[in-house]
Amino acid sequence: MSVPDVAVSQLITHLSERLYPAPSFGLSTGVAAEYAFGDHALGNALPDIHPIRPAAVLVPLVVRDGAGGPQYNMLLTQRAATLRQHAAQIAFPGGKIDPTDASPLAAALREANEEIGLPAALVRPLGYLDHYLSATGYNIVPVVGIIDPQFSPHANPDEVEDVFEVPLDFLMNVNHHERHAREWQGTLRHYYAMPYGKRYIWGATAGIIRNLYERLYAP
């Protein structure tokens, strides 16, 4: 299946019906076994990390004029190569939830503003995906939002090397959901990957995109 199976004009309504209106469970450190989604979902061992740290990301969608009419794109970033963690990887805008953040949504919007200059006023939140447990011990809360098509990204060079868009039609096509594996800390780890031209979308980012696919198209 792919996005054309749900008319673009109906996609916002369909997303709102399929997403959670609030995070699916609390932000306490919890235990790894509580997580249905994460880097362990393809058979990898659950991370033995304490405490599990709360984080939030914005999954930004934007409407563009396409050859056959309006189409949705997903906005992604390429992290700066100088970062200590996940350098040069494809990611959503987001990061750790600070004690001063009122909610996961507030954290995701704050990080998006810091990383790519996206004002909160230009985001229409639609709802939440399932929490995602990363192998590095983060409880990631993804919030899906529609962003104003007039928004022009201004990447913070300390954190973001590039900002780009990928058609949602491509990302929601299950034929593009490849399963890859590589050795990490002496263990073979399996993960989703969605190569798009020169972009290698993988790991937690691809796993969250896969969760969006499942929320949209699961019975």
Description:
By secondary structure, this protein is an alpha+beta fold. It has a single domain, classed as Nucleoside Triphosphate Pyrophosphohydrolase, CATH 3.90.79. Helices cover 18% and strands 36% of the residues. Strands 1, 2, 3, 4, 5, 6, 7, 8 and 9 form a nine-stranded mixed β-sheet that branches. A hairpin with a 2-residue loop joins strand 2 (53-66) and strand 3. The two termini are 12 Å apart. Mean pLDDT is 86; it is low at 1-6.
- The SSE string, one letter per element, is HEEEEEHEEEEHEEEH
Q: List the domain count as a whole number.
A: 1
Looking at the structure, the CATH topology is: Nucleoside Triphosphate Pyrophosphohydrolase
- Residues in helix, %: 10-25%
The CATH homologous superfamily name equals Nucleoside Triphosphate Pyrophosphohydrolase
Concise description?
The chain has 219 residues and is an alpha+beta fold.
Give the SSE layout:
Blueprint: H1 11-18, E1 37-38, E2 53-66, E3 69-79, E4 90-91, E5 94-96, H2 104-116, E6 123-128, E7 132-133, E8 138-147, E9 160-167, H3 168-171, E10 178-184, E11 187-196, E12 199-202, H4 203-217
Parallel strand pairs: 1-7, 2-8
Antiparallel strand pairs: 2-3, 2-5, 3-4, 3-9, 6-8, 7-8, 10-11, 11-12
